[in-house]
Amino acid sequence: MRFAVMASGRGSNFQALIDARARGELPGAELVLLIVNRRDAQAAARAEAAGIPWEFIDSEAMARAEFDRRALALLRECHAEAVVLAGFMRLLTPEFIEAFRHRILNIHPALLPLFPGAHAHRDALAAGVVESGCSAHFVDDGVDTGPVILQQAVPVLPDDNAETLAARILPYEHRLLPEAVRLLAAGRLAVEGGIVRILPKK
Ligand code: GAR
């Protein structure tokens, strides 16, 4: 499975995919391209260091539909069969999602369907939950509403702020996302009635 990653910033989840690949944990999955939408995205330096081709599409300079058209053209050029959103902080158009239906994964720092959107940690703290976590899920037309693939619960501690909670959850994201990619590449994810079923090993 040839897959591309889209990222907006730090890129630690992208790095987790590079590292998992290097350890041989993603058999049959080839990381063929990184697309960043911000000029200052640290993810690009990680791609450079790992020898992975990367492209910058300036999301500030164009409308969403144009951004997605250009991204789709790049993905087709490199024959990507799946797309992994790793801290990609933009919504995609229905056209983009349709082109890769059930082939786009995202990592989100909360136990979906709770706390979707860009402020998951802040929202979890404001709700006073005693645990949050992270979710790897398929992307659909909504904001973090697609079928959940894997989740990991992580405790919220009384003195947490958004930064401490994010730091506690992040290492679990780094395990969950490569695991979801591994399952997708192995053909072990089926979506039935909006629910993901993890198929047994062949
Ligand atoms: C991660 O915590 C990811 O779950 C979150 O952004 C961070 C990116 O970190 N994504 C979202 O909140 C999406 N709604 P990274 O750039 O170091 O991977």
Question: How does this structure look, described?
Answer:
By secondary structure, this protein is of the alpha/beta class. Helix 1 (12-22) runs parallel beside helix 2 and helix 1 packs across helix 6 (162-185). The two termini are 17 Å apart. Strands 3-2-1-4-5-6-7 form a seven-stranded mixed β-sheet, sandwiched between helices. The chain has a single domain, classed as Rossmann fold. The chain contains six helices and nine strands, in the order E-H-E-H-E-H-E-H-E-H-E-E-H-E-E. It is globular and about 50 Å long. The site of glycinamide ribonucleotide has 16 residues, from helix 1, strand 5 and helix 6.
Summarize the structure.
The protein is an alpha/beta fold and 202 residues long. The protein has six helices and nine strands; from the N terminus they run E-H-E-H-E-H-E-H-E-H-E-E-H-E-E.
CATH class: Alpha Beta
Main β sheet profile: 7 strands, mixed
Identify the CATH architecture: 3-Layer(aba) Sandwich
Mean pLDDT comes to 97
Task: Identify the overall geometry.
Answer: globular
DSSP helix fraction: 25-40%
Ligand set = glycinamide ribonucleotide
> Are there runs of 5+ residues with pLDDT below 50, and where?
none
User: What distance lies between the first and last C-alpha atoms, to the nearest angstrom?
Assistant: 17 Å
| Physical arrangement of strands within the biggest beta sheet | 3-2-1-4-5-6-7
Radius of gyration: 16 Å
Quaternary structure type: single chain
